[in-house]
Amino acid sequence: MASSQTGQTGQTSVDTTNIFTTDKKFATRDDVVEWAREVGFANKVSIIISRSDKKTGKRGRSDKLILGCDKGGKYDVESSKVTATKKCSYPFKIRATPSTDGSGWKVQVKCGVHNHGLPDQYEGHPRVGRLTEDEKKHVADLTKLHVAPRHILLSLKEKNSDCVTHVTQLYKHRSILQKAERGPRTEMQQLMQMLDEAKYVSWNRRRDDGSDVLRDVFWAHPDSIKLLNMFPIVLIMDSTYKTNKYRQPLLEILGRATLYFISGERFENRVELNWSLPLEVLGSDIYIVGSTSINDILCLTNIWDAESKLVLWNPITDELNVIPPSLVESVPCTKVIPFIHGIGYDRLRDDYKVIRHVEFDGRSFDFLFDRVLSMEEDLAISKEPLWEIYSLKSNSWKKFDVDMSMLMNPSTKEDIAQFYMDGMCHWWDNVEKDSSDETYFVSFDVSNEVFFTTPMPSQVDDTFDLRLVKRQLVILNGSIALISYSGETTFLHISILGEIGVKESWTKLFIVGPLPHVDYPIGAGKNGDIFFVKKDEELACFNLDTRTIKELGVKGDMSQIVIYKDDCFLAVNGGLR
């Protein structure tokens, strides 16, 4: 049994002389090593071969074996590398030599003292936890089957209950296997070869400086291409989380959002506009807030991106104002989710304002720390949602204390839920009032910063299946209008609001249809025009006066119509088509 004591310097020493003292004779040198390591393993001592000599006939050379502890030796302080060390100049030494009578190898403990404490367990020990040849083969076989390292480790411990290998050692061995497989090729060259061998469809783009450095790589399985050709409406793209050692996105959907200016009596004039400046700030997936411009200004956002941004842009002058983040976005350990509800013009102060509702993603707090927060930390972080208003004149956000319903989250691309008109931002309420079945829309007075609610009309035509009815709020000929429609009947029922806050002022004006090729509306114009997407994704316009349909010559199921003065902007988002 090992005994321990603490010297005058406070350093712990352990005496293992009795453990390694034996009269046993061993047939070979390897038998000595195997015995010493078994005894050491049982007593938490890691045995290494410090020196091994063989008798060669030369003077001073004889059969000899010196065993020591893995913490032996001295650290080279003159080395140019600054590293940690476990060497502590231990005195422990075992000497083994052949017996003079030829009966085998004998063992002599020269010094059984360790000047360090022994570990409580061997888990993860770099030497004792080394993989055996059988274990290496087992790891290689399971790696080929794409078994996760943590499951490989469980398999090893099921086969050998004494296994003290750590998962880190498995990762190191897997790295050795990968390097041996690719040979002299780089990681990128290996990837390209594997794609070619597996008959994947691949594409890559190099840097513009003429070098062979890749900027982008895309690949798809042949079966995925077949599925895309069979079902071109649905596109599923997968990204593997946390596997890129360069911390670059493994999946980035690239597309180009196009902006057209359409004009003319039947929108026969169409000009593609250059909005490179907003694209540079926001990226390719741009969303226009609201359905009208305000004094030639549009509010643009990339709200669905991981880092949401807002800009105010004048298409005529190309003047761009980037809206700064608010104070809540700079709070440590928080991730905000902003919902833009509208942009409006404050006539009293000659100011432009943006109103939004901010929520905090509760799931993100642990992810940001890469650990589970303690109860004290969790309580210290405020997660209560709040309202904020941005002022262009002061170029700052302020907290807005109000109990106001937020924008209904559009569940489908058909939903139109927000617009600006006559000094007010309007959006569809996302909650029901008074435990009734009524729904409301909210009107926010930008100048006075007060809000009103208006019940939506409850009457629905008998031809509608209530389960399939969809309703949209739009501006039609300068009035707030409600378009109700059903995908089965393809009839559009249009009602106009007479007074904000008064449910009884809704008046049903038109029933349009049947329109067999209409999929869903995307907006309305000033001259009785209703824009919609057809079932073949063609964009078209229906005029309530002439009852005629005019195709716009553009395809895009993620499109927006924005009224700009007396004409229109048509934004077609090509990034998700």
What is the gist of this entry?
By secondary structure, the protein is of the alpha+beta class. It folds into 3 domains: 3-114, no CATH class; 133-182; 257-576, Neuraminidase.
Written description of the protein model:
- The chain has 577 residues and is α+β, with helices and mostly antiparallel strands.
- It folds into three domains: 3-114, no CATH class; 133-182; 257-576, Neuraminidase (6 Propeller).
- It is elongated, with a radius of gyration of 37 Å.
Produce the secondary structure layout.
Layout: E1 3-6, E2 12-15, H1 17-20, H2 29-42, E3 47-53, E4 64-69, E5 93-98, E6 105-111, E7 113-114, H3 133-144, H4 149-159, H5 167-182, H6 187-197, E8 201-206, E9 214-220, H7 222-230, E10 257-263, E11 269-272, H8 276-282, E12 287-288, E13 298-301, E14 310-314, E15 319-323, E16 336-346, E17 351-360, H9 364-369, H10 375-380, E18 386-391, E19 396-400, E20 418-421, E21 424-428, E22 440-445, E23 450-455, E24 469-476, E25 479-486, E26 492-497, E27 506-512, E28 518-524, E29 529-534, E30 538-543, E31 548-555, E32 559-564, E33 567-573
Antiparallel strand pairs: 1-2, 2-7, 3-4, 4-5, 5-6, 8-9, 10-11, 10-33, 12-13, 13-14, 14-15, 16-17, 17-18, 18-19, 20-21, 21-22, 22-23, 24-25, 25-26, 26-27, 28-29, 29-30, 30-31, 32-33
